[in-house]
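User: Earlier you gave me the apo prediction for this protein. Now I'd like the version with zinc ion bound, so I can compare the two side by side. Same sequence as before, with the ligand SMILES added.
Assistant: Got it. Here's the input I'm using:
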Amino acid sequence: MTMTRHTRATTLCLTLAVTLSLVVGLMLAGAPVSAAVAGRRPLMSAEIGRGDPAAYAFFAEIDGEPIHWNPCRRIGWRLNLGRAPDRARPQARKALRRVNEATGLRFRYQGRTSARPNARGRNYPRDTSLVMGWSTPRRSQLTRGQAGVGGPQWSSTGEIVSGFVLFNAKIELQPGFGQGTKFGYQGTLGQLMMHESGHAVGLDHVSDPAQILYSMLTDKRATWGAGDKNGLRQVGKRAGCF
Ligand SMILES: [Zn+2]
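And here is the structure of the complex with zinc ion:
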């Protein structure tokens, strides 16, 4: 495999209260990928959930198929708890449990790491292909006001080979998965964790504010919307093994 690396155009997003998140993806090798297409191929069976069931978008597609992890292998993941808020671990585990429920992808927590979350999976331990952690705009690709960034790296076959989720340690969000505060930064840490994890499994932003993959954090409860569920299902077990 040639190892020319392509960096996909980044997508910025912002919230009412300045909170932003960003998606970053990297493709290893070969052919260019098509841009994510919003709302294609809605499933016939309407999922229960908020908002528009067709409101999902894939990060990238290869030969008409969304890039995705290999659902036949467990995804080893670790937390870098440097600068993490209180009770970050149970919230991160809960967010990935929700990704598991919606996708069928299985995650295995391998413990803490000092490796920094990064788009190339650089310096990840051998048993780890996804790292979540915290940093500051000064020390990372985050910009001021961005709550988080997340994304996958994938091969020319469309298999996601590593992922990362990075949170802004300077932005304190309400903990948990509820509605969060009406004032200040909207949304919760749970909502942000689900959002960035959604990027890490291959989803892009949508314009429906009812979805977790909406580009801004809002005061909705942190549960998957109808479009989120449809998108997640299609990048999960259903997508088939590599
Ligand atoms: Zn985002």
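For your comparison, keep in mind: The two ends are 16 Å apart (CA to CA).
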